[in-house]
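Suppose a classmate hands you a notebook page containing two proteins, each written out with its sequence and a corresponding row of structure tokens. How would you begin to make sense of it? This section walks through that situation. The first entry is reproduced here exactly as it would appear on such a page.
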Amino acid sequence: MTEIREKERRNRTMRGRPYSLAEFMAKYDLSEQEAGDLYTRFGPSSVELDLLMAAKRRIPALPDPVAE
């Protein structure tokens, strides 16, 4: 029989400040479904999510207030 395994979340040290889901959605102009999926898979780390979006060649729709 096939066993169903739950996804295990990798424990990583958070790099950068955490994004809220709403902030991540707004910054990259993402749908709630797409942002929620990425947020769940990669966590709230602003560094990780910004690197991911750069790899996808998605530029921020809103400027980062911390970087200014």
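The notebook's second entry, a different protein, reads as follows.
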Amino acid sequence: MSLPTILTDSNPGAIRPARTAASCVLLFLALLSTVGCSKKMAVIAPPAPDVSIVGSDSDRLQESLFKGDQAVLSNQDIDRILTARITLSDRHRVAVLHLNSRNTYYQEIADLEGQNSEQFLKALASTPQFTQVRFIPTLLIPDKRTAPYLREAAARFQADLLLIYATRVRNFQRDRLLGTDEVHAEAAVESVLLDVRTGIVIHSAHSSEGIAARKVPGDLNFSQTVSKAQAEATGKALLKIATAVGEFASHSDK
């Protein structure tokens, strides 16, 4: 059996086409490898986008970045609270609560504090928006004086609004070797007005008043003089709070 002519030296013209075909195959493989490498080099991961905590004017953050915050209030609830608009057109009944009322050992001081409370309620009731202003009965005051429990107590009292206030007094005493001792009492009152239906604080106020007093012959001791000055300063500060709340209610009703 004879060998094919393409392998013999007797037919050199037939070898050229075979070599040419082999060269084309090698050239094709080389090009294919080059294209594959270029594609691999082109597939490069793009840089990570810059995520900034402070958003731009057109893309501001609207949600909390801390997951634990939503265990108390969801982002949707926060948005509803911040965008809510509350008017007092249908809020007429006000419940009042003094958070830190104190006990006194002097009848005169107790009478002064009672007068302060009565004048405070009268000043609030003079606001045309309010048709009913009353202190919450002691039996309805919860042990836990937090906003949810206080709101529940006001709802049981059928109050539309709950005015919560706290008082604080400071004394500056001046002792004299000769003459009558003096005291300067400074009272500060802080209040918040809570909308019972929504649980939102719609108003807050702060006032302070100072009174200087000296011991008079009718005072049993200097301690009574100090207590009288404290009560007088507190009464004046409370009237400022009543005025601020009344002005707010009058403007919010429009």
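A careful reader of the second entry would note: The radius of gyration is 42 Å.
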